[in-house]
Design brief:
The protein has 5 helices and no strands. The chain has 149 residues and is an all-alpha fold. It has one domain (18-142). Helix 1 (6-40) crosses helix 3, helix 3 packs parallel to helix 4 and helix 3 runs antiparallel to helix 5.
Length: 149
């Protein structure tokens, strides 16, 4: 609602964002879990434990960095699904956003607006994928940009 406080606006965003969150959360949690299991069973984790490193250091520095790589990929690629789901959520809850803009432009055959909306969605998806690639290079030093093999 217009003129409402910050917490009131957050309160009214909970129900529309819940379906998108619940669908994505299961898939992301499953990927994070399988990544952690695989990283915990790897040779570099056993080596770190046998070196006598504290368990917290092993988890944060060795296991979590490598376990998050597939999860980051899933989050970046699911951005497209999230934006596609916005069309349904914005229509159901009568919110004005990029999803309803594209839907209204398609229904009214407003091709320039439709192209602009789809281009904006494509740019958001490309930026999310690019951010995932940069996060890869931060988490895993073997994937540095321009690094020699």
């Amino acid at each position: 609602p217009k003129g409402a406080g910050f917490f009131t606006q957050i309160y009214y965003l909970i129900l529309p964002s819940l379906p998108l969150f619940l669908v994505l959360f299961g898939y992301i949690a499953r990927m994070a879990r399988s990544g952690m299991i695989e990283a915990l069973d790897s040779d570099y984790t056993r080596t770190a434990v046998l070196k006598g490193l504290p368990w917290r250091t092993v988890i944060w520095r060795h296991v979590l960095r490598n376990a998050l790589l597939p999860t980051i990929t899933v989050i970046a690629t699911q951005t497209g699904y999230l934006i596609g789901g916005l069309v349904v959520i914005e229509t159901l809850f009568r919110y004005q956003g990029i999803g309803s803009l594209v839907f209204t432009a398609a229904r009214g055959k407003d091709f320039p607006m439709l192209e602009a909306g789809i281009l904006t969605i494509g740019i958001v998806y490309a930026v999310a994928t690019l951010a995932a690639d940069f996060l890869y290079s931060v988490l895993n030093p073997r994937i540095r940009l321009g690094a020699e093999q």
